[in-house]
Amino acid sequence: MSGIYTEKEIYGDALSAQKASTNQFNMAANECSHEALRQTMMKILREEHDIQKCIFDDMHSAGYYPTPAAEDKKIEEAKQKFSASIV
Known about the structure:
The protein is mainly alpha-helical.
């Protein structure tokens, strides 16, 4: 049965499409000069990120996107590094 996509391939395509979509909506939001349009783009961007997260979670739980557990020390270092840059 050649030509049939596996579930993993379908999920992978969906995740790639969502990543591309969020990139485009992010760029659109960054370049808006009209505030109402910018807010609409930001709302859509958030929704697209939520969809991306759902796809990732499904892939991860199915074993299609394994991620190693982070060490507590590394997590704390990252928190400190990035919280210092937010003022």
